[in-house]
């Protein structure tokens, strides 16, 4: 399996009384994420499926990633909190997607994108590559950043193929 862990793009600062889950992307965040998506496309990092936090900024980021996804996209509360065995089981249970079934990525392991929030994406990254989520807050996961993992979706079962800061992704963009 391959995973792309994506931190949501730049969001508006919290306002008094506004639930954190309702914060939207800024126009700058949208613009930068579109360029980051173009950078992923330039590397042909397309996905069979996309799972995202239901929080507004993650859902908006997922929508910007949609051109790279050949199958389904849906929200899961499991990406709006610390990583759990339920999240890993949900990701492992992800079917290859309609495009993979048609052979668009024939012969390859399924690639799934997960869009979420810090510190949880860092914790998930640490958990998957080291077996422990303790180093997760140390992960330099900028807004709009992407970690590319390969292996088995279990604690310590994956290897980090690349960690793309958002600036690097934007520099790969042809737009």
Describe this structure in words.
The protein is 33% helix and 18% strand. It is an alpha/beta fold. The protein has one domain: Phosphoglycerate mutase-like (Rossmann fold). It has a six-stranded mixed sheet, sandwiched between helices. Helix 2 links the parallel strand 2 and strand 3 (73-75).
What integer value in Å does the Rg equal? 15 Å
Question: Order of strands across the widest beta sheet?
Answer: 3-2-4-1-5-6
Query: What best-fitting shape do the alpha-carbon axes yield?
Result: globular
User: Helix fraction?
Assistant: 25-40%
Percent of sequence in beta strands: 15-25%
- Domain count: the total is 1
Low-pLDDT segments, ≥5 res: 96-103
Q: Strand-and-helix sequence, N→C?
A: EHEHEHHEHEEH
Mean pLDDT: 90
- At the fourth level of CATH, the homologous superfamily is Phosphoglycerate mutase-like
- At the first level of CATH, the class is Alpha Beta
Q: What structural class is derived from the secondary structure elements?
A: alpha/beta
